[in-house]
Amino acid sequence: MKVLDVLRKLGIVRYGAKAATWTSGKDMPAEFLMDDVYDAQKDLTTKQDVARVAEGLKKSGGRKVLFWVTVALAFVALLFLTAGGGISIWLLGALCLWAGVLSLTYQFAYGGQYSYGGVIALLVVALLASFILMGVTASG
Length: 140
What we know:
Layout: H1 3-10, H2 40-43, H3 47-60, H4 63-85, H5 89-111, H6 116-139
Helix pairs in contact: 4-5, 4-6, 5-6
C-alpha cells in the first residue's frame, strides 16, 4: 500500500468525487451516506485491506518485533550501565556487545538470515553479559 493510500484510509487526505443515479435508498452508494467520503473503495477500509496487512505480518513472522524488542533491551541495559558507573571501559565494552547483537538481529529481521533459536540464544547471552557488566560496574 502506498503512502497516499494509507493517508486516505486514515482520513487524513480526502479528494475526488463520485456521481451516481439511484432509484431508492437501497441503491445509494456509500459515498452519499457518509460525510467526507468521496470514493468508498479508496477512502474506507475493506476486508481485503485487513487481509493484506495480516498477510504482511504473517510473512515477517515477528522478526521485526524481535528486532525492536532487542533495541529496547539494549537501550535499557546501556542506560542502567551508564547510571551505575558512568562512562567507563565496561560501558564501552557493553556498547560494542550490543552493537554486534543489534547488527545480527537487524540482519535476522530485515535480511532473513539466521534462525529464531540462534537469535534468542544470542539475546539471552547478551543480557547475561550485561548483568555481569552491571555487577562489575556497581562493585567498582
